[in-house]
Design goal:
This protein has 107 residues and is mainly beta. It is 7% helix and 36% strand. The chain is built from 1 helix and 9 strands. The strands form 3 sheets. Strands 3, 4, 5, 6 and 7 form a 5-stranded antiparallel beta sheet that branches. Strand 8 and strand 9 form a beta hairpin.
């Protein structure tokens, strides 16, 4: 079977709810949205949790993500950071430069 994206209560017994409908991996929860990959596309689902039963919108495709290895969402929820390993290589570490705009202005 395909991998799918689910949510369920943390540290409680309860139902689990399927978010994706045609496969999903690499899920990220940001605010009231869950982002995930499905068939080389980045998708998003609106989530509302009020009471004990969450409600969800339909998954929407945002853009073709290609074959990325990792992604994350910026704090504003409007931009993404993604990375991909060169074909046939292995990555032992990754360098993330925070506040790079400030460092660039200093030069």
């Amino acid at each position: 079977g395909k991998n799918e994206v689910y949510i369920q209560p943390f540290r409680e017994e309860g139902a689990k709810y399927q978010i994706s409908s045609h496969g999903g991996t690499n899920a990220r929860w940001h605010g009231n949205e869950i982002f995930f990959e499905s068939d080389n596309k980045l998708c998003v689902v609106q989530v509302s949790i009020s009471g004990k039963v969450p409600t969800f919108g339909n998954p929407k495709e945002l853009f073709n993500s290609g074959e990325i290895d990792i992604f994350d969402i910026a704090k504003d929820g409007k931009s993404f950071l993604s990375g991909r390993s060169p074909s046939g290589s292995s990555v032992d570490f990754i360098s993330l430069i925070d506040n790079w705009e400030y460092l660039a202005k200093k030069k």
